[in-house]
Every structure is written in C-alpha cells, then in structure tokens.
Specification:
The chain is α/β, with parallel strands linked by helices and 544 residues long. The chain contains 15 helices and twelve strands. The protein is globular and about 75 Å long. It starts with 27 loop residues before the first helix and ends in a 23-residue tail after the last helix.
C-alpha cells in the first residue's frame, strides 16, 4: 500500500500551511481505524499465523497514522494501535485467571505503546524541513524512527516489574528470510532493521513512490543485505545425546490432581526410553510437584529414574531454602555432591508472586487470593555443567529476557535447555509464541536448543533454529535426540547485551539534539510553525 500526499483544489476547509510544515497524512477519524488495522496486521506477523511480511505492513501503517499529529492525538492513535495489537496477541493470558488479567496487561502495554508514539510524532515534526527526496529524509529519518521504535520495545521489556518483552518486532522474522541476521545483530538489532525498513518505505512513498524509483534504494539495499547475510558460524565441539520427556500430566494450576501425579506422569513416560544411551534426561518446568530436597520419597523416585536411564536428570520444581521459595531447575544425580541448582531469575508477577500485594488485594482480592505462593528471584547462574559440558538454562518465561540467555552464554553454554509449563494455556497460541523465542535464541547464540514443555509443543532445534524433533501438543511422549555442541561467540553475543542500552541512549541523544535545534530555530523562522489543528486537518492520504 502506497500512501500519497495530495491536496484537492476543492478542499476549501484546509487552513493555510507555512512552508516546511506538514499536516497529518489523514484525518483523525480515519487515523483511528487505520491504527486498529495496523494493530491487526502486526498481530498477524506473530504466531499462530506467522505471516512475517505483515510486520512491515503493521509498522508502516502505524507510523503513517502518527505523522503530523498533535501530542494528544498521537496518544489516542497510539493507544488504539496498542490495544488492538496486544488485545489480540495476548488473548491467552485470560485463560489462567479470566478477563481481568488480560485486560490489565493488554491495557498497560497499550498505554506504554501510546506513550512511545509521542517521540515518533516529535521526530517527524522536528525533521520536516527540506525536500522529502533528500538523503536525510530517506535515510536518517528511518534510522531515527527505527531507533525510537526499538527504544519503546526496550522500555516495555524492562518496566514495570522487570517488564514483559514478549512482543518484540524481530521475533516476527524467525520463520522468514531475515532470520539469519539475528546471529549478527541479536533480536533487538533485527527489530531495529525491520522498523527502519518500514519507515524507509513510508518515506519513499511520501516522496513520490513509483514516480521516484531511486528513493526506494535505501530500503531496497538494506533488505538485499539482510537477505544475503548467512548464519554466523560457530565451532563444532562434538555431540550430546538428550532424552527429553513430555509427560502431559495434570500440571495446570487448576487441574484435578493428587500430590505426585505430575511426577508419576513424567516417570511413566521416561520408562519408554530407558533402554537408550543418553548423556542427560530432561524434564520440563513443574515436572516434580514436591520439594525433592525435602521429601525423601520424591528423592528416592528421582534416584530410581536416573539409575534406570543411566544418566543424570535435569528436572524442575518448587524448592524452599532459608524460608524462601524458588522455582528451581536442578541436575539430579544419585551422588548428592554432583547435584546443581538454578533458580528462575524473573518470577512472573501476578502468576508466581504478587508485587505490592497490599495494594492489589484491595482492588481484586479474589484473584490475588488465588496466588498464595511467593517465588523469590534467583541469583545463581543459569547453567549446569555435566562432565565438562556447560548447559545454558532458562525456565519458562525467562527465555524472553536477554540477560538470562547471555548470562548462560558467558558461562560457556554449549547448548541450551528451556523448561516450561504451558498447561495453564492449553488450546491457545501461547506455546507457539514461546517456541519462537526458543528458535531465535538458537539463531542468536549459534547453539542447539531443547525446548521441553509439560504438555507441548516441545522441540529440539539445531544451532540455526531448524526443527530437528517435535513432540506434539497434549501428547505423552519422550524421544532421544543427538544434538551438536558449539563453542565460539556470535556477533550477536557481543552486540545483543549492549544494544538494549545503546538504542535508547542514541535515540534520546538524537531527540534531545533535534529538540534543541528546533527550539532555537522556531522564534525566528516561520517555517517551524506548528502543524494545523487536528480538527481541521485535510485528508491528504489515500491508498493505491
């Protein structure tokens, strides 16, 4: 879709515009439904649909609704875009505790999205001088807009309560032709490139579209480079054979069950692969439904399992130490001196603990009362070492937090195991959206990944994100997979940990500079008069 600015000679309602200023591309009453369409389009780029080109469409339409807007109108347009996108993308949230958590989370993300629309509006306003066919308009403006878009992602991913970096733009490309770029830039860098390309195509359309062919060169060159960039190679370090078991037990919060039922389900399925020669047996999050370090019967069962399969067991369950409760992955060996622990770094707010409980109990006491257990954030490294092979870990939603992945990488991880429990989201797209993160982590790090769930979908992935083995959803099954071990750093491992701070820093610096220049110029230059009021903006855009 190409947006072409024009002014009809018969439009006598349009106020005169000073040279160098620009009104909105569309009236506010049109911008609001277009923003909703943009949110819908962007959601289609994610799983379960996974139409990756829609990311460019969604971003492009969203940006088009913001150009020339006032700050107040930008907030309104931004909240519509965010509400539609997050309302659809996070539909699975309501399956656990009902519509209130879904509305609360989607609403918060929509408000943050709207706040992030304001600097985008100001960036377009403060860079409006000069011809639209200039290099600054076709190259520098898209780069700035891409940086602001990613900076908004970073803020949403970090605040409040450690944030929720679930809907990152780069994740839409995990099954598309640009996926290999993530091994060089990390997912944050890939998000930046996708946003910048969308902004560049929009700038080209505003400069004349097909009538100005060379204006598409910056975006076309960027896309061409992204298409030909190969996966960054890592160094072969041998192989490692993993048995991984999806017990499909009653692991949901509200599932009907007796104590020990989940453990029995995992043990029963594990017996099916007990004859295979493996280096490690892997169970998912919540696979042990009692504290193995405080319950002798549970400890005896785990020892029996490891003896039967002839390999240590990487399992997960709640543990209590020093009066605090942790979501713990542990390497269980019959020899207690060889056991190792990792505690989940980012317990889920309102799922695994309630922040500011005193406050939320006054608002929704019935919902808050359902969450009795308060998990403590872990501080030990997300890695276990098995006979000289470091294995990186991430427990459930910890897979979406970059710092957990890079911490394991810095501790020498040669492959990753992600343990999760999707039982509370049966029948939704949550497990498919989470699998996207597992695939992207394989690409970013150049490491094989086992993503194991209680109820599915579980997968083993090669270091380039290709699926090696799959256990389908809601199926009790186990399998054995020989995975490649890898060493060596990818460029993403250097750039990725720094990009979450670098993009906001550069974007803020650029906006401060533009703001100062704009303020100094405005008193003596009538070309910087503010845009026309929203209520009288002409219709200046249409689709062709």
């Amino acid at each position: 879709m190409v947006l072409l600015r024009h002014r009809r000679a018969t439009d006598t309602t349009a106020p005169p515009t000073q040279p160098g200023t620009e009104g909105p591309l569309m009236r506010l009453r049109l911008a609001l439904p277009v923003a909703a369409v943009a949110g819908l389009a962007l959601n289609l780029a994610y799983q379960p649909t996974g139409w990756w080109p829609m990311a460019l469409v969604g971003v492009g339409l969203s940006l088009a609704t913001l150009i020339g807007r006032s700050v107040g109108a930008a907030l309104l347009v931004g909240v519509v875009f965010g509400a539609v996108f997050y309302g659809l993308h996070l539909a699975w949230v309501g399956q656990f505790l009902g519509p209130i958590p879904r509305l609360a989370l989607s609403g918060l993300e929509a408000l943050l999205t709207a706040a992030g629309a304001v600097p985008i509006v100001l960036a377009y306003r403060w860079t409006a001088r000069g011809t639209r066919r200039s290099a600054a308009q076709l190259i520098l403006v898209p780069l700035l807009i891409g940086g602001i878009w990613v900076s908004r992602e970073v803020v949403i991913g970090a605040w409040p309560y450690n944030g929720f970096p679930w809907a990152r733009l780069g994740m839409t490309q995990v099954d598309g032709p640009f996926r290999e770029v993530a091994s060089w830039t990390g997912v944050t860098g890939l998000s930046f490139l996708i946003a910048a390309v969308a902004a560049g195509l929009l700038q080209w359309a505003r400069a004349g579209g097909w009538r100005f062919g060379r204006g598409a060169l910056p975006a076309a060159i960027t896309v061409s480079v992204m298409l030909i960039v190969p996966q960054f190679p890592t160094t072969d370090a041998g192989t490692f054979t993993v048995g991984w078991v999806q017990g499909n037990g009653p692991a949901g919060y509200f599932d009907q069950k007796n104590p020990g039922d989940v453990l029995v389900a995992q043990k029963t399925v594990s017996e099916r692969i007990s004859g295979a020669r493996i280096d490690l047996l892997v169970w998912p999050e919540g696979s042990v439904d009692s504290d193995a370090f405080a319950t002798p019967d549970t400890a005896a069962t785990l020892t029996q399992v490891t003896t039967s399969v002839g390999a240590p067991l990487l399992a997960n369950g709640a543990t209590t130490r020093d009066g605090r409760t942790f979501n713990t992955s542990f390497l269980w060996d019959p020899d207690a001196t060889n056991r190792q622990l990792h505690d989940k770094v980012n317990p889920v707010p309102f799922g695994e603990y309630v922040p500011d409980r005193w406050f939320y109990e006054r608002l929704v006491p019935d919902l808050v009362g359902l969450i009795q257990r308060e998990y403590t954030p872990g501080s030990n490294a997300p890695v276990v070492n098995l006979r000289g092979v470091p294995i990186g870990l991430a427990i459930c939603f910890d897979v979406i937090f970059d710092r957990v992945i890079w911490d394991g990488f810095d501790h020498g991880a040669q492959l990753y195991v992600f343990q999760t429990n999707n039982a509370d989201f049966r029948g939704s797209s949550e497990n498919l959206q989470q699998l996207v993160f597992a695939k992207m982590r394989a690409i970013e790090t150049g490491r094989a990944v086992v993503n194991i769930s209680t109820v599915g979908t579980s997968q083993a992935l090669s270091p380039d994100g290709t699926v090696i083995d799959t256990l389908p959803v809601e199926t009790a099954a186990g399998t054995v997979t020989t995975l490649p071990l890898r060493t060596g750093r990818t460029p993403a491992s250097v750039i990725g940990p720094r990009s979450t701070g670098l993009f906001p820093l550069l974007s803020v610096g650029a906006m401060l500079s533009l703001g100062i220049i704009h303020r100094r110029r405005r008193p003596r230059d009538p070309a910087d008069a503010p845009a026309a009021p929203e209520s009288r903006s002409p219709v200046e855009g249409h689709a062709s």
